[in-house]
Specification:
binds pyridoxal-5'-phosphate; two-stranded antiparallel sheet; 15 strands
């Protein structure tokens, strides 16, 4: 059977018989890249024109491109299309670098990038004394290989805390302590894949690393639209699970509305699917009591995930999953294979802090500190988007301005910023904005950071960054090269 051949100058045979046409297209492109027929940097045609060439639906091509971007074979940037990623034939596929530059790549005098708490407020002395108490009390056996779910003391303390503070319904036997949500989500994806799952739906805005974890576990992705009511699962395609951030969408900052919470659970029941509730900053709500976890409405359909990365520090690498019964064993197996168990000393210390009230005290202190910081941010920039919660807010940029330019201009003044673009799934159009992490700097650097941010915004507002005169503006101290 003669195979269709695309007409964009690439010698590519694409066998598109059978029902899995997106898969066939992916396989053909992967093959062409691995064999060197398509070389690094080669621009691919737009999804529209390739679809027309091959007689496919445009979505089939978009899906194939998305999958290959997630796997690292292709790279895509807004505005410049899709190209073959930098990849040598014969070498293992290079994963697409995270769109968000690693935090440690360069140091700045001021930092308003999202993702972390104020590390200078880590309660060192409370941690030290809790750690001393925990270690003195622990029997020798606690230092051996233990339950892959984590220390019984920590799981008991977490079950009590999560029920009280977040409305999570669980007992300690369904909790698994992990090395951060990053690990937890990877274990969950692998466990789901192992039990037959094929597709995970992700919000169309989110952490690119989490999308990569889905792809790396052999799962396909579906994208869920997000608006000012949060993720909209009503029209979502069939999937085996959906990763959501109900309390505070990351990074848009919306909350999942009551109707959408029900829509999400409805979707999960209709498709016999699971919701993964990433409650990464659920403790921090400033205008009202936090909404209880979605998991509380249907513990059999929702996996709850929490982390100490925002309340305490990401370097601790402590997070927890609350699982439906049927997933406990498969996730325990994955955890055993990954690292047997999370380090015990920090688990015991955290258990001690939870039991003694030190955890709640720290969260309360940080809640009022971050609320004040958010208020100051609003005063400094005039307008932010997203509910009054968490550690970040969206700061819109003038229409037609460039996020990259704002980031570059800020960098010349020693301020690290991040645009929204790196968090968008491909094929999502959106207005330019910055994702401002107002918790990141230590107190003494916050004022300076806000001043530079206000200057950068002022500068962009005066002259859209697309105007060629920007770098030549007389008298301006803000320039970008
Ligand atoms: C949306 C979201 N989920 C989860 C996490 C926490 O990840 P981890 O527990 O691996 O530090 C983060 C941290 O940046 C996040 O932004």
């Amino acid at each position: 059977v003669e195979k269709p051949r695309s007409t964009f100058g690439m010698d590519l045979h694409v066998d598109l018989r059978g029902p899995l046409r997106a898969r066939a297209l992916e396989a053909a492109l992967r093959d062409a890249i691995a064999s060197g027929r398509l070389t690094a940097g080669t621009r691919l045609p737009s999804s529209r024109s390739l679809a027309a060439d091959l007689g496919l639906a445009r979505n089939t091509v978009v899906d194939a491109y998305d999958q290959l971007v997630a796997e690292g074979w292709l790279s895509a940037r807004h505005g410049s299309g899709t190209a073959v990623a930098d990849h040598r034939p014969g070498a293992p596929p290079v994963r697409d670098l995270p769109a968000v530059a690693p935090r440690w790549a360069r140091s700045y005098a001021f930092d308003l990038r999202p993702g972390g708490p104020d590390l200078s407020s880590f309660p060192r002395s409370a941690w030290l004394s809790a750690s001393r108490r925990a270690l003195s009390r622990a029997p020798d056996a606690a230092l051996g290989y233990g339950d892959p779910r984590g220390s019984p003391e920590l799981r008991a303390a977490l079950a009590e805390y999560l029920g009280r503070a977040r409305g999570v319904r669980t007992d300690p036997s369904r909790l698994v302590v992990c090395s951060g949500f990053t690990q937890a989500f990877g274990l969950l994806c692998r466990a789901l894949h192992g039990s037959g799952a094929r597709t995970v739906a992700v919000e169309c805005y989110g952490l690119p690393e989490l999308r990569q974890i889905v792809a790396g576990s052999g799962l396909r992705q579906a994208t869920v639209p997000v608006d000012d009511q949060g993720a909209d699962l009503r029209a979502a395609r069939r999937a085996d699970a959906a990763l959501l951030t109900p309390a505070h969408q990351f990074p848009l900052g919306t909350v999942l509305s009551p109707t959408r919470r029900h829509d999400a659970l409805d979707w999960a029941r209709r498709h016999d699917a699971l919701i993964v509730e990433d409650d990464y900053d659920g403790e921090f709500r400033y205008d009202r009591e936090p909404l209880g976890a979605l998991q509380g409405l249907d513990p059999d359909r929702v996996v709850y995930a929490g982390t100490a990365s925002k309340t305490f520090a990401p370097g601790l690498r402590l997070a927890w999953l609350v699982l439906p019964d049927r997933l406990v064993e498969p996730v325990m197996e994955e955890k055993t294979l990954a690292d047997r168990q999370t380090g015990i000393l920090d688990q015991l210390t955290l258990a001690e802090l939870l039991a003694s009230g030190g955890y709640d005290r720290h969260v309360r202190r940080q809640r009022s500190a971050y609320r004040r910081r958010r208020d100051r941010l609003v005063r400094a920039v005039g307008e932010v988007e997203g509910i009054s919660a968490g550690l970040h807010a969206l700061v819109p940029l003038p229409d037609g301005s460039s996020e990259d330019r704002a980031v570059a201009v800020a960098a010349t003044r020693g301020l690290a910023l991040e645009g929204l673009d790196g968090y968008r799934a491909r094929s999502v159009e959106g207005r330019p904005a910055l994702v401002v992490g107002y918790a990141t700097p230590p107190d003494h650097a916050y004022r300076g950071a806000l001043e530079i941010l206000a200057e950068v915004l002022d500068h962009l507002g005066c002259e859209p960054a697309t105007a060629p005169s920007m770098t030549r503006r007389a008298g301006s101290s803000l320039t970008a090269s």
